[in-house]
Structure formats: C-alpha cells, structure tokens
C-alpha cells in the first residue's frame, strides 16, 4: 500500500511538472513570436483620459482644494440651417451676450453673421466658461441639433483646480 501511494504521488507530481513545463514553453513561444504584433497593438490603442482629481480636505473636513470643469466654447456654423439662422440669430446673440458677459450682443451677431457667410467650421466664442453657462447656451434653439446635421456647439472640457484658502493646499 505504501508503494502504491508513493507511485501515485510520483505520477501526480510528474504530471504537474510536465503541464507547468508545457505551459511555460507555450508562453515563451507566444512572447517571442508575437511580441512585435503586441507592441504594434499597444501603440495603436493608447488613450489618455483626464482623471478628475479628488478634493483635498483639512483634518476638520473643510475643503482646501477642489476640481471643477470649465469649458472652451466654439461653434460650427455650417451645421446651422439657413432658416434657423435667420430666425434665431438676434436672440442667440442676446443669449451669448447675457450668458458670457464678455462682449455686447452686436459683437456676437456680427461674429456669427461673418462666420456663416464665410462657412467657418470653428469659431471660438469664449474660454473657461462654467457648466451652468454652457447648459444655458445649449438649451437655446439656435444651438440645438438640427435634422440631418450634427450639433453646432463644440465644448471642450478643461479641468481646473481651485484653492479655497489660497496656496495652503497647492502641491
């Protein structure tokens, strides 16, 4: 009985060693032969995703630093139909002027008219606007997606760090 147990153990251990050896050889073969394909695949599929940093708190739970999103706002006037453009241009200019408070309504009206005439695909309206300002502008009919076209508003998110107590939380 003791010899049978010994033989059975020896058989199990040798089978296990053979399986580990075959697996190891196969892995090295894959690494050796397909390494160029994997390198090419990895180089093509790299994407950088901006991460939202968390809040920095004091030991008492007060926010020392926080991350907010601001947006760079642009417009593709080629995606606005002539009918919508003529109907809503003045109201859209008023909305931009009231929301962004950078320039008067006449400035935005002239900017949009010139861009529409010249078929500009990208005109910059403002930088670092808040999310509430962006949502207010997006709700206006002038900036809505129209039939058989893409949405004319181009908003690029910009992550900004704000420090409530000055440079205390800056790293």
Layout: helices, strands, pairs:
Elements: H1 2-44, E1 56-57, E2 63-75, H2 82-100, H3 105-118, E3 123-129, H4 131-138, E4 153-163
Antiparallel strand pairs: 1-2, 2-3, 2-4
Helix pairs in contact: 2-3
Mean pLDDT reading: 83
Q: Tell me what portion of residues adopts beta-strand conformation.
A: 15-25%
Distance between the termini: 71 Å
Question: Could you tell me the number of beta strands?
Answer: 4
Topology order in helix (H) and strand (E) letters: HEEHHEHE
Silhouette: elongated
Describe the structure.
- The chain has 171 residues and is of the alpha+beta class.
- 49% of the residues lie in helices and 19% in strands.
- The chain contains four helices and four strands.
- The chain has helices spanning 2-44, 82-100, 105-118, 131-138, and strands at 56-57, 63-75, 123-129, 153-163.
- Strands 1, 2, 3 and 4 form a four-stranded antiparallel sheet that branches.
- The longest helix has 43 residues, at 2-44.
- The chain is elongated and about 100 Å long.
- The N and C termini lie far apart (71 Å).
- 11% of the residues are buried.
- The model has no long low-confidence stretch (mean pLDDT 83).
């Amino acid at each position: 009985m003791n010899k049978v147990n010994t033989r059975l153990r020896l058989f199990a251990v040798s089978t296990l060693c053979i399986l580990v050896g075959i697996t190891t050889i196969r892995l090295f073969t894959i690494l050796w032969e397909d390494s160029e394909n994997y390198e090419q695949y990895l180089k093509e599929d790299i994407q950088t995703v901006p991460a939202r940093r968390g809040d920095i708190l004091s030991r008492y739970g007060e926010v020392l630093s926080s991350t907010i999103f601001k947006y760079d706002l642009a417009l593709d006037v080629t995606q606005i139909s002539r009918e919508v453009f003529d109907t809503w241009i003045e109201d859209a200019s008023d909305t931009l002027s009231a929301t962004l408070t950078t320039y008067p309504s006449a400035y935005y009206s002239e900017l949009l008219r010139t861009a529409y005439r010249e078929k500009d695909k990208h005109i910059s309206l403002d930088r670092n606007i808040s999310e509430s300002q962006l949502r207010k502008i997006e709700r206006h009919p002038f900036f809505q997606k129209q039939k058989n076209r893409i949405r004319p508003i181009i908003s690029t998110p910009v992550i900004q760090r704000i420090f409530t107590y000055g440079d205390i939380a800056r790293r």
